[in-house]
Amino acid sequence: MAENTKVAGADLELIDVRKDFPGFTALDDMDLHIPAGQFFALLGPSGCGKTTTLRIVAGLETPTQGQVLIGGKDITNSKPHERPVNTVFQSYALFPHMTVLENIEFGLRQRKISDYQKLAKDALSLVELSHLGERRPQQLSGGQQQRVALARALVNRPSLLLLDEPLGALDLKLRRQMQIELKAIQLEVGLTFLHVTHDQEEAMDMADIVAVMNKGRIEQMGAPEVLYDRPKTAFVSKFLGQSNLFIGEVVEKNPTSVSIEVGGNKITVAKKRAEKHTGKIAIGVRPEKVDFHESKPRLSADHIVVGPGEIIDIRFTGVSNQYLIDIPNVGQVTVFAQNIGKSPETELGAKVWVSWKIEHSYGLADLPDGTEEA
Amino acid sequence: MRKFSIGRYVLPLYSLLALVFLLIPIVYTIIFSFNDSTRSNTVWEGFTLTHWVNVCSRQDVCEALNNSIFIGLVSTLFATILGTALAIALVRYSFKARSLVSLSLFLPMATPEVVMGAGLAGLFFNIGFAPGMVTTIIAHIMFCLSFVVVTVKARVQTLDPTLEEAGADLYANPRHVFTKITLPLLMPGIVSAALLSFALSFDDFIITYFNSGSVSTFPKYIYVAASRGVPAEANVIASAVFILAIVVVLATQIRGALKRAKLAK
Amino acid sequence: MAFAAFSNDKPTKDSSTKRKSGPVVLALLAPGLIYLMLFFMTPLISLVITSLESPDPSGAIGSYFNDVNFSNYATVAVDYLPQIMRSFGYAFAATVFALIISYPVAYFIGVKLRSRPLTQRLMLTLVIAPFFISFLLRTIAWKQLLSDDSGFVNILHSMGVLAPTQFFLGTDAAVIFGLTYNFIPFMTLPLFTNLERLDVRLLEAGSDLYANPRHIFTRVTLPLSMPGIISGTLLTFIPIAGDYVNASRDFLGSSKTSMIGTMVEADYLQNLNYPSASAMSVLLMGVILALVTLYVRRSGTEDLL
Description:
The structure holds three protein chains of three kinds.
Chain A: E1 12-21, E2 24-34, E3 39-43, H1 50-58, E4 65-70, E5 73-74, E6 85-88, H2 100-110, H3 116-126, H4 142-154, E7 160-164, H5 172-189, E8 192-197, H6 200-206, E9 209-214, E10 217-222, H7 224-229, H8 234-239, E11 244-253, E12 257-262, E13 265-270, E14 280-285, E15 291-293, E16 303-316, E17 320-327, E18 331-338, E19 351-357, E20 362-363
Parallel strand pairs in A: 3-8, 3-9, 6-7, 7-8
Antiparallel strand pairs in A: 1-2, 1-4, 4-5, 9-10, 11-12, 11-14, 12-13, 14-20, 15-19, 16-17, 16-19, 17-18
Helix pairs in contact in A: 2-3, 2-4, 3-4
Chain B: H1 6-31, H2 50-53, H3 59-92, E1 93-94, H4 98-106, H5 113-126, H6 133-158, H7 161-169, H8 174-203, H9 206-211, H10 218-226, H11 232-264
Helix pairs in contact in B: 3-6, 3-8, 3-10, 6-8, 7-8
Chain C: H1 13-17, E1 19-20, H2 23-51, E2 54-55, E3 64-65, H3 71-79, H4 81-110, H5 117-128, H6 135-145, H7 151-159, H8 172-196, H9 200-209, H10 213-224, H11 226-242, H12 260-270, H13 274-299, H14 301-304
Antiparallel strand pairs in C: 2-3
Helix pairs in contact in C: 2-13, 3-13, 4-8, 4-11, 4-12, 8-11, 9-10, 11-13, 12-13
């Protein structure tokens, strides 16, 4: 099916888009550019504006201001049916009064495409449901309905495919399977995908680029591994994976690094990995990058050592052990220790020190909510 | 465990008795359509099919029936169109006077027939419009309207707006969204509203009595005939209508129940 | 993972399902509302105007002139007091009886038969079956079945409930009986619609808390079915108060059972006393509106519609 071009989609550009609803602003002057052929994920919690963004692109919502461009063409004022965009809705929105095949044919017939029957059948076989074409959507399982919804959108070969939490209603196992299939289909058809989700694993798993949204704004955008390795705000560091954050005044600065003082401990971050170099700043580290020791470790200067503290909680999750360590005057630190058989004989209440490499620290541009500015 | 359970025996028995109570006069009416009576049809005089075979031997009954069917069809058509539009507007659009519109649609249902009948008759009298077929139809559209709105509204409320958005997203212009998605999905509600409307119109007596002038309808015929005895032909017509209606309703109910059972599997 | 806890993201859902007003909504609303104005509001206003008219000085029957004559109201209130009392008395009694008969039936069909959808549908069809056959003929059927030489009356005589010279037809009881019978489906249907959606888990929770079935009924089931009871009683009470067919002497009543509707019909169609008929109608409408307002305060219009 994908014999022609690898990139069949078009790029999407949002310029200064704003959406006000009575009482609140859903989108706050958003700029966004998604290159053609990308799998792009908008990630964020409930009410962050990601669904509004999607609906504006689909034409189901009119922006208060700003422009929407697809393939360089301004479509801000086009009606939904005039846009080269198709959506896989969260509830699938399959037409209950039509068969599966009629659902898939719908868009083609609206555009008066003559060989709609063959195209619809091809799309149905792409999602491996050829045998269910005559069924009604209500007779299908959730996963099957999801695939029909996908086929119904894909068959139109839109410049841009919008996915509104399409996997949200599926159970975990099916969701993982559909993620893999969806990604494979995207690579096969080469369309631009804009995927909206609140599931950070799903976003990181599938997308080429992830934009984390919060309160109507994009907090940070980039490749999943970059976002995870170097979150720039407290929101991103907490929403995408888990973080240990340390807040303190900058007490030491040199050409390559910045250090803060927290409860008598010095915590350092490389300057190029820090957004802010003066005043009160937050430095974070991912739990799996942290080690703990039962005696104060003697480590080289490229390590940070904090402690001693007390283990107040241990959770066994199979792949790793999660330790919660309370360090006086510093706070609680989470440590993930991979479960590779040599489990340390550590017990609740043990006295430990934690350490990590300076290169794993990251400095945030802001402070977590609830921390007063200095 | 309680030995005696209300839910187990008393409730089904009570319900059964209540239903029998509801059905007694219906059965009576049907039985007396076979009564070999000539005039009053109050005493059982033997079984005959004559009245069924020659229903229209009494021309006045059949004329009344024809009028009732005609009035029912025309008023149902208009009431259904007007009411469906109102129902869609009420559920799908936000506008300032919404609760006022809701209230003014509720009011006709809260108006006793005799008040609406006298009011309309007064209006027609005051503007010098002679009562007849047209005034009857106008009156019937009026009292059916609110019931259509209520029935269709319930259906519109269950309609997922995303389906219409999906239609627009799949290149259907607003007109096609309406004809290919909205309307087919609302159809069950619209059909029940139309059936209800027809039933209300067909069985209406009081408002019709005030506004029909010399035009006869089936209920009006029975009311007038009641003092001297209703002919068995009226029973025949009522029984035939009843059997037809009940067959249609039962068929759709059974089909619906089976379909649901199938989907539940 | 801790992050899967975020629920669905639909901040705009509520604002998007309701579209803004525009030419479309006007086109949808206008025909129906204009119809309502012309043939509902105008007649009501015309009734009020007519109810204040005075007889033409010429004395010609059916001739009146525009006036602000409130004495029509005083006249009907005095002359027709028995009819007014009867109408609301009958309506009250018949509504109570209809509720007593309908509630258990609606509960049985709506709750107990839930596990058997086919039986449920069949029973429901039987409840609405009376709608498919002329209510006048059904009432006439009762008239025959309860007539003076019927088995029913014979039994009442032999039991001594009725004296040998007394009969059932033409009494208050007969009219209330007919009204109750004719309006049972109007009571049962809204009750069923409500009870059909009753969450049985709440009853189970109730039995957990109160244990006593009677308390579960009065503290859980009954309050939850209140909206159904309200719309059922309104749908029954209002038409009964305006009915006059059951009370008519050709049906179940006699000259001693005349109701407001009887008088409106007589004044309007026979006596051509339009002001009196109109005053009576306005009075009836006023009382009913007052009652509805009282009810609406408790439930809200949207629920009623």
